[in-house]
Amino acid sequence: MPVRRRVKLRQLEAVLLPDIHHYLLLMTGEVLKLDGHSRFLRLAIKCGSTVLSRTASPSGDPCRVVVPIANLAIGHAHYLRRHMGPAIEHLQLARNQFHTLPDSPLKQFYLGRCVCLLIQSHAYMGRLDREVDVSSDAIGLLRGLMNLVIDQSPDKRNFVERADNVLLKLTHPPSIWYERCLYDIVEITTAHLHIHRSSSPDPHYARLVALLMGMPAKGAPDIYHIEREFALSLTFHSKMDEALALWRRLLHWKNSMRDDQEEEEDTIRFRIITCLVTLGRPRDAKVELSKVDLAHSLVHFSHGPGLLYLARRTYYQIGEFGKLLELCRGYQNLCDQKFKPNDIVPLMNRYYSARILKRLGRYGEAVKRYRNFVSVVEKTTELMSGNSFAFEIDSTRTLQGLLGEGRRGLAHALRLTGRIDECIFQYRKALQFARTDYFSDFKLVRAVLKSLAYLYESTGDTKNAIVAYDLLHRHYLRKPAHDQLAVIKYSWYRGKMFLLMGQLEHALALFRHAHFTCASKRMESAKTRWPTPAELELARRTIETEDEEQEAAPGEMEDGPMPVQEHEQNRGQEAEQSTKQALGGDGTSRGAELPAENVAPGAPQEPAHEDLDVEDRSPFGSQESVPKMAVGDNDRWWARTIEASIEVAERGGCVEDPVPLDHYDSDPDEIAPDTDEPTLASEPFVMPPIGKRLGEMTEPKFEELPETYKEYKEAKLERERYPWRRGVYEDEAKGYLENEAPSTGATVSQPIRSFEIDLSWI
User: Fold this and answer.
1) Distance from C-alpha of 753 to C-alpha of 742, rounded to nearest angstrom
2) CA-CA-CA-CA torsion for 67, 68, 73, 78, nearest 10 degrees?
3) What's the rounded Cα separation, in Å, for the pair 48 and 22?
4) Largest CB tally within 10 Å, which of 167, 261, 337, 420?
């Protein structure tokens, strides 16, 4: 052999043999990590450390690809041992070393593995700030991994075959590296979706969904689990359209595999129904529900309570209340046997059946159901959730909230049956549970106070009606200052309080202030926008065309423009008419002749007043018992109500009939749905310092309420039996009224600005 060729072979051997030894050590470490035992993981760490010690020699090149791969292998082994400190240290070092290498598919693949392990390590340690940094830097990596996976699709997968890295050939055959790449993409995208919920990377997950949907239906089980985890992440982040497509694909995939995992198939159908109900497609959800054995799922599977909840919500959205009642009654015994009495699943099923009975007009049965529900909840000391699915569905229910809502529903059913005394007692009980030392459900409190004020005023109980109106106007002070409707309600409820006290001057001033605010609100809502430049250009061309046609036919004056004087006169009449409509009616104090805005001619008019409780509203619509409200109906109703109150105050305060409960007299946040959906029990409003800034007394309170309705009725009969004691109560009420009235010295002739509300402290 020539000397020159022998020298070249020795040089090549000196270069290749160390790399082969390093690759064999790293491959041994990868095989040891497959077992997962702590002893083998320590040996894998030792193999990687040996490679690092050899490559750190002066003859070694620190920029070779072996060094970051060895750090990645050591970090992965530490991660499997749950030693997150050394794992993050080696993974961060490997990440920085990979960034120094030139761009190549090999770099993208290993860098994706490194970033994925870094995100999981930081998440395991709860270091959210570092997780955010890593996921933010991974956006560029996502694009490279996407291109790598899309360019090297399964039918033309030749990246591994032409790779120069022996370790990649030995440890990542074509059937493995592709799934590893997909797994890394899903993990990084899911972490970014979880951290940046407000600004999620839509192009990235859209491309990933398209990539997963383009894969063959019969794939490896690893790819199935990757798609399932990503679909679950999209569902939790309210990406329902993409999640629904992936869940349907997974269901088709599961059916084609023909295995016996019945629970997995039912779980996928549960997720599909969840997406359909959230997207507002109840009829499609009903079709999917017909393919599920609900009783079998409720007994054997953990997602059974979730399916029962979705079935109730689906039937309610469609409007099939009869089937819904059969569903609740049919599964009540099964829920009682399967779950504990203090579990949320049987409790909400019982509560739901009572509300549906009330919706169907069967008030006597609804009263019995509500009593049963309240008795069960009163015996409960701690509310439980049977499984994770039930907790996901409704995690905001509290024991006090259920007691308050149950008492409120019972009171409404009693009022519909005509039992007013017991109805008032139950409303007072609901108010006690809605206002505790630890929390206050302000929405429920306002709704109950409105019902109590109406009932007390209807029955002639002036003292308690004054207390209810006083508490109401104080609660509307918690609203923001820019909420004009809250200012209107504050003035009207406070004016009603003064009207019942007999202080007509203060009541009339507050009513006029509410009327002025209502008119201002309606005028602002009726403002027209400025025309766009395109509309101005179109109007100019139209005028020029009309002028040309008029010049061509000067004798035809019927269709031409009207004279200037007549045009100005008509424009003044239109302005006067619009001002009258904005002020609520024909300009006088009577609001009965108010024109209906935004209503087509000949359309059926909705009744202005309906004796409806505030809770009987549904967010889903399509119920015959819930009147539909047009755009300006709320303002018109308040204009008519305030004008009627002004008339009563001007006549001398002789109240003929109290204003009935109406669906316009409820805020959107006070409308409790007739479903067992989660409801927030707090509001972001601060309690105002009433005693310091407004110069008023502390909040008034109702008289002490007995524990049972029997004791309440006996106390009421005792007052009626001993009429000479009534003077004591009247003196107490009179003293309360005199102390409550603020000494403003205002009269009707004074300007209304003196009664404007100071909300600068908010």
Assistant:
1) 17
2) 110
3) 9
4) 167
How many helices (H) and strands (E) the chain has is answered by: 30, 0
Residue of 74, 181, 194 whose CA lies nearest to 123: 194
Q: Where are the alpha helices (DSSP H) in 126-239?
A: 128-151, 166-171, 174-195, 202-213, 221-236
Looking up tokens 């595999």 gives: 257
Half-sphere exposure of 484 (CA within 13 A, CB side): 16
Kindly report the average pLDDT of the chain as a whole number: 66
| DSSP state string for 503-541 | -HHHHHHHHHHHHHHHHHHHHHHTPPPPPPHHHHHHHHH
Residue the block writes with tokens 């035809």: 556
Give per-residue pLDDT as tens, 433-488. 777 655 667 778 888 888 888 888 888 888 888 888 888 888 777 665 556 777 88
- Give yes or no for residue 674 having a pLDDT over 60: no
Cα–Cα dist 5/362, whole Å: 103
DSSP 754: G
pLDDT on residue 761 = 35
Q: What's the pLDDT at 370?
A: 92
Phi, psi of 227 (to 5 degrees): -65, -35
Confidence tier at 756 by pLDDT (50, 70, 90): very low
Structure tokens at 160: 């591994």
- Residues forming beta bridges with residue 182, ordered by sequence position: none
Q: Where are the alpha helices (DSSP H) in 301-362?
A: 304-318, 321-338, 344-359
**Residue 342 in contact with residue 382, Cβ under 8 Å?**
yes
Number of Cβ within a 10 Å radius of residue 639? 25
The pLDDT of residue 197 is above 70: no
> Which of 26-30, 68-72, 224-228 is modeled with the greatest confidence?
68-72
Contact in structure between 312 and 352 (CB atoms under 8 Å):
yes
> What is the average pLDDT across 169-177?
48
Residue pair 135/195 in contact (Cβ under 8 Å)? The answer is: yes
Note whether 81 and 33 are within 8 A (CB).
no
Which class is domain 293-428?
mainly alpha
Least confident of 6-15, 278-287, 294-303, 395-404: 6-15
In 56-173, which ranges are continuous DSSP H helix?
66-80, 84-99, 105-125, 128-151, 166-171
Write down the domain spans for the chain: 293-428, 441-527+617-755
What three-state secondary structure class fits 548? helix
Query: Which of 425, 421, 474, 423 lies closest to 445 in space, CA to CA?
Result: 474
